[in-house]
Write a structure and sequence with these properties.
The complex is a heterodimer of chains A (about 110) and B (about 110). With about 110 residues, chain A is an all-beta fold. Helices cover about 0% and strands about 55% of the residues of chain A. In chain A, the strands form two sheets. In chain A, strands 2, 4, 5, 9, 10 and 11 form a six-stranded mixed beta sheet that branches. Chain A has a five-stranded antiparallel beta sheet with strand order 1-3-8-7-6, with no helix packed on it. Helices cover about 0% and strands about 55% of the residues of chain B. The model of chain B has no long low-confidence stretch (mean pLDDT about 90). Classes of the chains: A mainly beta (about 110), B mainly beta (about 110).
Chain lengths: ~110, ~110
């Protein structure tokens, strides 16, 4: 059974701080990794995808992948109250379905 | 721009009713998915389809069926709605498997009384 685990939170950070969200996965052959943001009552929207070991930056967001440790993280710099949401980690192997983590609830305090 | 639409944002039905949830994507995507999302349980895959007229069971298919007669449309059917099917239903699509991003529709919040 493929599993993706996340700390459910809530993770609370002050405005302007760095928020660090973590995700571990069980299937060593996983190839593609995604972070989605979901506001309450809304559907998930893609923030970033990452496929290779290392860091990938997009604006205030940085995804980090370590396949040896089966670990993917999302850093949000200069956190804003509008970043308050649930963040879903998703993992897939080529040709197979996504496996989603349970999500981490982030609260950015003004 | 990527677009996945769902027929209703909110739906209220009675126990035993037949319920149809429609999903349409305009991106010519091959793959379409139906999930339900419940507090504490995350996203759970109900059914998916890799091609027209093809369907595969996901993790929780019991009590549901699907139909895909056209590439752009994927319907979820609750043959006889029950109260434990009260949930948020999310449709998603991808171009192919693997590296392709899943794009989600806005969701349908279904309440079964």
């Amino acid at each position: 059974q493929k599993e993706v685990e996340q700390n459910s939170g809530p993770l609370s950070v002050p405005e302007g701080a760095i928020a660090s969200l973590n995700c571990t996965y069980s299937d060593r052959v996983s190839q593609s990794f995604f972070w989605y943001r979901q506001y309450s009552g809304k559907s998930p929207e893609l923030i970033m995808s990452i496929y290779s070991n290392g860091d990938k930056e997009d604006g205030r967001f940085t995804a980090q992948l370590n396949k040896a440790s089966q670990y993917v993280s999302l850093l949000i710099r200069d956190s804003q109250p509008s970043d308050s949401a649930t963040y879903l980690c998703a993992v897939t192997i080529y040709g197979q379905n996504f496996v989603f983590g349970p999500g981490t609830r982030l609260s950015v305090l003004p | 721009d990527v677009k996945v639409t769902q027929s209703s944002r909110y739906l209220v039905k009675r126990t035993g009713e037949k319920v149809f949830l429609e999903c349409v994507q305009d991106m010519d995507h091959e793959n379409m998915f139906w999930y339900r999302q419940d507090p504490g349980l995350g996203l759970r895959l109900i059914y998916f389809s890799y091609d027209v007229k093809m369907k595969e069971k996901g993790d929780i298919p019991e009590g549901y069926s699907v139909s895909r007669e056209k590439k752009e449309r994927f319907s979820l059917i609750l043959e006889s709605a029950s109260t434990n099917q009260t949930s948020m239903y999310l449709c998603a699509s991808t171009l192919m498997g693997g590296r392709d991003t899943q794009y989600f529709g806005p969701g349908t919040r279904l309440t079964v009384l």
